[in-house]
């Protein structure tokens, strides 16, 4: 298969994906094949450079162009991965640091590369370690989008979530029921989509 | 509670200026004539003390003693607006968290006590709500710092000056974060590249460096809390900020003033 391609064209495609992901605010599937092709391109470029460097002769101008292409491809690859992990961290905080909840979602899980799953696990343990500094007084992974106005909140159960300990004792949340509960006790369940505020 | 204090003052026959709606409290901080009635929201036991001290300072233009919560709110706002990581407020945070814990314990005791009256239950509820709101600010403050620390993790691990501004826990998190991010880059990208390309610290010409640093030229809104020493703007002009003056300028210009608490970011 011979295609006439400009240097760095694949990397541009990769960046377009990150761009689209930001603009549509969605996590896209990890593009393994494109990443691999760019890495292959990098190896080819490296070979091209080595072929150009002949002892005793001044380096030809083409060297500069190839070197620039190499640098650019590399930055694009790193930018793509860095954009993705930033996005994953945002998603992690949006569900209040409930990593199992995130990873058990098949739709999300299928979009991650195995390395990204590893990364999230490591990140999670790092955050948990940091959180343990505060655990006596407060949970730093709780929501910070809206300051609390009321102590209690009326919730509607969207998904069964079993028995939860609250200040009123343990409550069994079953789908379709409504409860008036203390916000701090069940906030994480709202964030994870088990309960809905009425 | 602030209304408790007001009630006490009224009983004592002192004139009380009722504090206006909360949205004007900002200007109240800088006003001295009717400060007596302006007792800020805060943790109850410290409020009275704070209010009294504040009254003593009516004559003194320079110093207004802030309650710990007000201090935290200011640090929180500065932290949220500054591009750089500001010095950690470990003592302040520890004392506030201790206070929150003591207050929660007191609330728990009172709630379980059957002789607690209905009126007190309402007060307990207010205290609990306030505790939750203070926790919200602490959380937001800690998370804002965490966000910046993660963003600049690689920079933090190499820069001793920034490291002094972090707590031990934050520093640990920064180095852990830099490590796992590097590792992720390595297994996903760099290990597949030829040896010459597999480093994270190259500095090609005409390309921004790979280590993200705080952008101190980012514009910030600055509110002068007192008469500030003359500052020089990037175009060479000089600016004397009066108390209460608000300006938009690059962070680098006011970095020192923020550190000394002469201005706040809004």
From TrEMBL, chain A:
CDD domains: GINS_A_psf1, GINS_B_Psf1. It is found in: Nucleus. Residues 60-133 form the GINS subunit domain. Its main location: nucleus. Keywords: DNA replication, Nucleus. Residues 149-197 form the DNA replication complex GINS protein PSF1 C-terminal domain. GO terms for biological process: DNA strand elongation involved in mitotic DNA replication. Pfam families: PSF1_C, Sld5. GO terms for cellular component: GINS complex. The keyword Nucleus applies. InterPro entries: GINS_A, GINS_bundle-like_dom_sf, GINS_Psf1, PSF1_C. Coiled coil: none annotated. Belongs to the GINS1/PSF1 family. Component of the GINS complex. Required for correct functioning of the GINS complex, a complex that plays an essential role in the initiation of DNA replication, and progression of DNA replication forks. GINS complex seems to bind preferentially to single-stranded DNA. This is DNA replication complex GINS protein PSF1. It comes from Gymnopilus junonius.
Automatic annotation (TrEMBL), chain B:
GO terms for biological process: DNA-templated DNA replication; double-strand break repair via break-induced replication. Residues 107-184 form the GINS subunit domain. It holds the Pfam family Sld5. Residues 214-266 form the DNA replication complex GINS protein SLD5 C-terminal domain. InterPro entries: GINS_A, GINS_bundle-like_dom_sf, GINS_Sld5, SLD5_C, Sld5_GINS_A. Its main location: nucleus. Keywords: DNA replication, Nucleus. Gene3D superfamilies: 1.20.58.1030. It is found in: Nucleus. Belongs to the GINS4/SLD5 family. This is DNA replication complex GINS protein SLD5. It comes from Gymnopilus junonius.
